[in-house]
Amino acid sequence: MADAQKLPRRPRGSLREPTSLGWNVELDNKEKWQKIAAHAGVSAAALFDMMVETLELDPRGYPSWFVAPPLDDGELPIDTA
Asked: For the whole model, what pTM was predicted?
């Protein structure tokens, strides 16, 4: 993995409301995410922001790749295509 010091940083003050993610995740996944970000030439945080800002959602608001739970009783499936 590239040295974090060498990755491009976002300009100081460019975040509107910076916050730290306080989530516990699998170490292997965190390291994989950092490697993907380094390969793309951005920080892990910048890659996270880009992913969230461009994430494609289905009509119910779930990520397009996510297996959504079944419809609620009485909820009709409406084809938007």
From this structure: 0.72
